[in-house]
Structure formats: structure tokens, C-alpha cells
Design goal:
2 domains; 13 helices; D-Maltodextrin-Binding Protein, domain 2; about 40% helix; about 350 residues; alpha/beta
Length: about 350
């Protein structure tokens, strides 16, 4: 993966709006349609004998990013549920491809799992070749949650709302950088969508994950970022970052005072991230069902619902089939968006 700055050409507005603008509706449908198995989970655990020991829980991004934070929350709850440790292993690099390959080639016994985000469906379009097939090599287990980004700026940047940022970017084309967690990542595509809809040219500055990008904007190295909501709250509250807008269709419960990008003057703007668990293809269905039932139970507890909303996330915990359908549709959808944006990693 390249370390230096890159600039991806903005995508055309209509296809991007069609692709990005439907994500909340699709994921909300998962919430409404999901009928998780919330009873008999412990009996299923006993029947499968799962897990027989510590579970290797691979997060294919560096420590501190949105995927890592969400993954650790779920890993802790899974450890408590099963009474066996789910050991987080960060294997960052290549926009998640390195850690994802590790799980693709792991034994299909449920003892190695992948916790990942929406980058899982963009890599096939970002790279000429990846060392795994996202459909053939994986068995979807469950979505955990989805959440938007928050458009934040370093307080040194003289912009207090979206319109002021747009005006500044128009006055300084190609001079304002926005930090991202890699080419084609959700924060990158969120910025490219704004570039196109607003007719501006902010420059994407890729980092090796959300954590390093967050360090860059906190230090003033890069003044703008579309930061995953799960990472944003404490830095906004402390005043180290200024929140201009959220990228979801509706305001977040955790940041009710922060408007959406759409209501700030860019109607139709919407972008979001998802988080979920997958296992190597060929994993026994009983193990997959046991894991799915456990995640559903965890995500529907009142304390987890409260925690998710506080972090700016929407808890899901739907069925394996719904997660598989989302992955397949997202691969096709984002392929079109990435092609039009010109984003590449090779």
C-alpha cells in the first residue's frame, strides 16, 4: 500500500448518490427484517462444543481505528458469553487485505474469525488482484452495527460549518487535505462524494488506518477528516476537533447538536460504514448459527443498544443470510462508485 498522498478523481454525482444514498435504507431494512434467534443460545453452544478454546479474532486494521474499536467491544462480549477468550489480533495493511487473507486461509473450524468493515467489499475494485475471494472464501456470520462518519476539522482551520468549508475549498482548490484510512476507504469515498456534489477539490491524504489519520488531524498535519463516529465523540467533547456535520441521513443520538451534511446545504449526501463478523468458508453451519445467535443476543441487550447509540452506531445483529446479501450487493455497488472516482491502490 502506498504511504504518500494520493488524489482520486471525484465521482460523478448521479451514480454516487444512487450508490451511497441507499446505504441507510438497506441497512435499516436489515433491522426491521431481522428476527434473530435470541433463545436457546447456551443450549446451542453446548451442542456444538464451541468454542473449545481461545478464538483468534483478526481485525485487519491498526489499533485505534473505527473497525478496531467496534471489534474490541464485540470481542469482549463474546468472551463473556462463551466463557472463552476471543483474542483480538490486529493485522493491518493493504486496506485490510493482509489480515483478511490470514482468515481466508485459516482452518474452517470457527477458531479463527474476521471482524471487518465496509472495506471488505471495496478491495476487489481497488486492487487489480487480491489474495482472496470475498464471496468464495468466507462464510458471513453476522453484522454487528453500522455508523456514519463525522466531518471534523482541526480548530486551526477557519471553518465552522459545511458552507464555510466549501467556500474555503473553492478559494483554495487542491490545497486543503482530508485525512483518510486508505484509498477507497469509507472516509475517502465520503470526501470524494462531497468534492463532487459541492464542486470543490479537497485532496485525499491516505494513512495506514483510521488511528494514524486521527493522529494527523489532531496534530494539524491534515486539517479535515471524515472520521468514524465511534472515534469522534471524545475529541469533539474536548475541543480538539470541531464537528461540522454527520454523514448520515439523520442526526445521531450521540451528537444531536451536529447537523447532517444534507441539511447543511448538500441535499442527497449520505455515507456510512458497517461492521461485521465472517468465518472461513467451509465452517460448520452449527458453529456459524451458534455465533450468529450469540451476536444477535448481545446486540439486542439494552446495555449494548445504549453503548452503540452513545458511540454513534446503529446496532444490527441480523441473520447470516441478510449479511451475505448485503455483502454481494455492496461489492457491485461500490465497484461502480470506485470506477467512476478513479480510486486505485496498486
Amino acid at each position: 500500500m502506498r504511504d504518500g498522498p494520493t488524489t482520486a478523481s471525484p465521482c460523478r454525482p448521479t451514480p454516487c448518490r444512487a450508490a451511497l444514498g441507499t446505504i441507510t435504507h438497506a441497512l435499516t431494512a436489515l433491522v426491521l427484517l431481522a428476527i434473530p434467534v435470541l433463545h436457546g443460545a447456551q443450549a446451542a453452544d453446548a451442542a456444538t462444543g464451541y468454542p473449545r478454546g481461545p478464538v483468534r479474532y483478526v481485525v485487519p486494521f491498526p489499533v485505534g481505528g473505527g473497525v478496531d474499536v467496534a471489534g474490541r467491544i464485540l470481542a469482549q462480549r463474546l468472551s463473556e458469553h462463551f466463557g472463552k477468550p476471543f483474542v483480538v489480533e490486529n493485522r493491518g495493511g493493504a486496506n485490510g487485505s493482509i489480515g483478511t487473507e490470514v482468515v481466508a486461509h485459516a482452518p474452517p473450524d470457527g477458531m479463527t474469525l474476521l471482524f471487518t468493515g465496509a472495506g471488505f467489499v471495496t478491495n476487489p475494485s481497488l486492487y487489480a488482484k487480491i489474495p482472496y475471494d470475498p464471496i468464495r472464501d468466507f462464510a458471513p456470520v453476522s453484522m454487528m452495527a453500522y455508523g456514519p462518519n463525522v466531518l471534523v476539522v482541526n480548530p486551526s482551520l477557519p471553518a465552522r460549518n459545511v458552507q464555510e468549508l466549501i467556500a474555503l475549498a473553492r478559494a483554495k482548490p487542491d490545497q486543503i487535505g482530508f485525512a483518510g484510512s486508505g484509498s477507497g476507504s469509507t472516509p475517502h469515498l465520503a470526501g470524494e462524494l462531497m468534492n463532487q456534489l459541492a464542486g470543490i477539490r479537497m485532496v485525499h491524504i491516505p494513512y495506514r488506518g483510521t488511528g494514524p489519520a486521527l493522529v494527523a488531524i489532531l496534530g494539524g498535519e491534515t486539517p479535515v477528516m471524515f472520521l468514524p463516529a465511534i472515534n469522534a465523540g471524545p475529541h469533539i467533547a474536548s475541543g480538539r476537533l470541531r464537528a461540522l456535520a454527520v454523514t448520515s441521513r439523520e442526526r445521531l443520538q450521540s451528537l444531536p447538536q451536529v447537523p447532517t451534511v444534507a441539511e447543511s446545504g448538500l441535499p442527497g449526501y449520505e455515507s456510512a460504514q458497517w461492521y461485521g463478523v465472517l468465518a472461513p468458508a467451509g465452517t460448520d453451519r452449527a458453529i456459524l448459527d451458534t455465533l450468529n445467535a450469540a451476536i444477535a443476543r448481545i446486540m439486542h441487550t439494552s446495555d449494548m443498544q445504549t453503548r452503540m447509540h452513545e458511540d454513534g452506531l446503529v446496532p444490527i445483529g441480523g441473520s447470516r443470510e441478510q449479511f451475505a446479501a448485503l455483502i454481494a450487493s455492496d461489492i457491485a455497488k461500490w465497484a461502480k462508485v470506485i470506477r467512476l472516482s478513479g480510486a486505485r491502490v496498486d
